[in-house]
Every structure is written in C-alpha cells, then in structure tokens.
Write a structure and sequence with these properties.
The protein is α+β, with helices and mostly antiparallel strands. Helix content is 37%, strand content 36%. The chain is built from eight helices and eight strands. The longest helix is centred in the last third of the chain and has 20 residues. The radius of gyration is 20 Å and the shape is globular. It folds into two domains: 142 residues, no CATH class; 60 residues, Arc Repressor Mutant, subunit A (Orthogonal Bundle). The protein starts with a strand and ends with a helix.
C-alpha cells in the first residue's frame, strides 16, 4: 500500500464556505478539517478545528445560510466546531475524487502556511496508479505539491506526516541506538557516521525533529 502526503493550494476559488467565512475575519482561523461526510443529498456533517474568538465563530455561524446546525466547544482560543452544512465546496469534490479512485484519506486535513498563502496538507493511501491518476484529475484552480510518496508505514502513525523521510530515518536510528535512553547510549558523531552525514547536520535535524514532536503534542 502506498502513502502520499501532498499540499494543495488554490487560486481564487472557494475551497470550503465556512473556512472562507472565517478567513475574512481577523479573529478566526480554521486549522484543520478533522472529518467531512455527506449525510444525505445536499447536506454534510463536519468537524473543524478552530483557533480564535469562539464567541465570534458562533455569531458568524448563526448568520451563515450554509450552516444548518452547529455546536462550538473549547476554551482559551481553541475549539472544535461540529457542523451540519448545505455544501462542502471543493472539499466535497476532492472527497468524491478519492472515492472514485478508491483512495483512503488519513484524517485530519491540516491547513498550513505555504509562504504566499494557505495550503491544505493531506495524506492519502492506495495504489501508486490510483494516487497518480487522482492527482492528475484535480479540479481547476487547485494546485498540488508532493511532500512525500512511499510505502505506508502504519507503525509510524502521525509521525510520518510530521517528519521528512530523512528526519524519520534519523529519528528511528536514534531511538534504536539509545540516544533517548538515560544515560545516552550513542552520540551525534556516532549517528552521523552511521548515516554518512555531518555531525552538525545530525544536531540540526534532531533539534528540528524534537521541535516538531513537541509542537504536535501540544497542538
């Protein structure tokens, strides 16, 4: 089974009506789409991960013609929106494309900063041919950047979506060699020799790995 992690960016198109609604408000950001599913014709149920003014989110949702029912839970500026809505925008087209090619989506879909704009990072599972065909049939206005393509590794879980292949290789070696044991059973130099890279590169990679893991745990 193959796994592909990609980042989608878009032109001036509506990717998701509720995300667009919140994007126009300086106090709100949708950070991830935890789940989307059609429940009957023209109606969807969703879970959205939200950061910002939750009371403002309730006000906007109450006024939106796309939101039929909703509930916002959370505190300290972070929450989850349970939403029944009339449309899922281009997100629904993407889900239909995955269904057509029998690909499995590894939730959540994460919004990220791409530098110039926001992008949607997601991981899909399936055959190599199905992944490539689906990538070639994206809706107009949607652009794809491949982050990672390889064999699916269920033991890595979310770890493989947070780290690059090189970082994952180093992290797994560090764990095997006892770098995180107390006391440590290996050094940066020994890890560098094993991978034939510079000691400074090992140090830099481990710092980035640990920062990503801590950020993922806290976030």
């Amino acid at each position: 089974m193959r796994s592909a992690t990609v980042v989608l960016t878009w032109d001036d198109v509506q990717v998701h009506p509720i995300d667009d609604l919140f994007a126009r408000d300086d106090d709100l950001t949708v950070e991830a789409i935890r789940y989307v599913s059609p429940v009957h014709e023209g109606m969807y149920v969703e879970l959205l991960e939200l950061r910002g003014n939750l009371e403002r989110a309730r006000t906007l949702l109450a006024a939106s013609p796309d939101a039929v029912e909703f509930d916002v839970v959370g505190s300290d500026g972070r929450g989850v929106v349970y939403l029944q809505c009339r449309t899922a925008g281009l997100v629904d087209e993407l889900l239909s494309l995955l269904h057509e090619h029998e690909l499995v989506l590894d939730w959540p879909m994460q919004y990220i900063d791409t530098g110039d704009s926001r992008g949607l990072q997601l991981t899909v599972l399936g055959t190599d041919g199905a992944i490539r065909t689906a990538a070639s049939e994206l809706p107009d206005g949607i652009h794809l950047r491949l982050e990672r393509l390889g064999e699916y590794r269920p033991s890595a879980g979310r770890l493989s979506s947070m780290l690059t292949d090189r970082q994952l290789e180093l992290f797994e070696l560090a764990v095997r060699e006892g770098y995180y044991e107390v006391p440590r059973e290996t050094t940066h130099r020994e890890l560098a020799d094993e991978l034939d890279i510079a000691t400074g590169t090992v140090s830099e990679h481990l710092q980035r790995i640990e920062a990503k893991l801590v950020s993922g745990y806290l976030g």
